[in-house]
Specification:
With about 290 residues, the chain is of the alpha/beta class. The protein is built from 9 helices and 11 strands. Helices cover about 35% and strands about 15% of the residues. α4 links the parallel β5 and β6.
Length: about 290
């Protein structure tokens, strides 16, 4: 039986990862701030602490060891440093959720080698509040250069699902339904996505694999913002009002200046098969359109 700790296991794909692991028979502990109830019942152990409070984190974990630690809420190099120190000699595997944001826009399909965390310079003083992309770059750099345990960083694109608390796809559907302008600077940019079910499934698979280092994870195939808009128009039977630029509040969360998509050969060579985008995204759009 796997003994697993999940930092960030109560919402979105983290919640689904927790449920999947419980169904597989794993011994699961989740760490949360304890501000909201969960639906896991007595099958899961709970620790309550703020992930960013290193002393509190150390206190609640105590002397426990884990086969796998999943860290879905590591956003700064300081948090990564604390994790390296806390779990040294106490985990067989550490998996952090990273992001496609470590890559720049443009160019061909992004491979893991297009951002090398092993050679990325670490500043002598870490920034207090790095932007999201730089925070993830530094998290990876700290983890891979300093951790004494096996580690992997999953580079997810935007994760979509009916339970997406950021409501990025919902944003587009609501704007089109309400006749609001929608700002998309490049309607033909190629993008990759993954749905929350597969994000959770991939994390679970990775916890049993031997893969280390950065790993891209996304659905097969690409789609443009323009095509997403077309699918929503079809589902709503209503025309969108798209412009290259609008007021900031109406700019699309998918509005990137250039193509931004990933290669998943590393994960697939290791044995994971991703679903195709066409197998779930049109259905999700129709579902959300019907609920809006």
């Amino acid at each position: 039986m796997q003994n697993v700790l999940i930092l960030g296991g109560t919402r979105f794909f983290g919640k689904k990862l927790t449920a999947n692991l419980l169904r597989s028979g794993a011994d699961v502990t989740i760490l949360t701030r304890g501000n909201a109830a969960d639906s896991f019942g007595p099958g899961v152990k709970r620790l309550h602490a703020d992930r960013t409070d290193a002393a509190a984190l150390r206190q609640v974990i105590g002397s426990a060891d884990y086969d796998v630690v999943y860290d879905n809420i590591c956003y700064t190099p300081q948090d990564a440093e604390h994790a390296v120190q806390l779990f040294a000699g106490r985990t067989g595997r550490y998996i952090v959720t990273s992001s496609k944001s470590v890559y720049p826009f443009g160019g061909p399909r992004k491979k893991e080698s297009d951002f090398d965390p092993y050679g990325y310079p670490l500043p002598s003083v870490y920034p207090d509040q790095p932007d999201y992309a730089e925070g993830k770059r530094l998290v990876e750099a700290v983890l891979f250069r300093k951790a004494p345990f096996p580690a992997a960083a999953v580079r997810f694109p935007i994760v979509l699902g009916p339970d997406d608390y950021t409501r990025r796809l919902h944003f587009h559907i609501e704007h089109i339904k309400q006749g609001l302008p929608l700002g998309i600077p490049n309607r033909e940019a190629l993008l990759t996505f993954i749905d929350s079910d597969e994000a959770a499934s991939f994390l679970g698979w990775l916890g049993t694999s031997a893969l280390e280092g950065p790993v891209n994870a996304c659905s097969k195939g690409e789609i443009t913002p323009g095509k997403i808009v077309s699918l929503i128009e079809e589902a709503l039977n209503k025309q969108a009002h798209v412009a290259d630029k609008t007021e900031e509040e109406h700019m699309s969360p998918f509005g990137v200046p250039e193509s931004w998509y990933m290669d998943t050969s590393k994960a697939e060579t290791a044995g994971y098969t991703f679903r195709h985008l066409d197998d779930w995204l049109p259905d999700l759009i129709r579902k959300l359109a019907g609920e809006s």
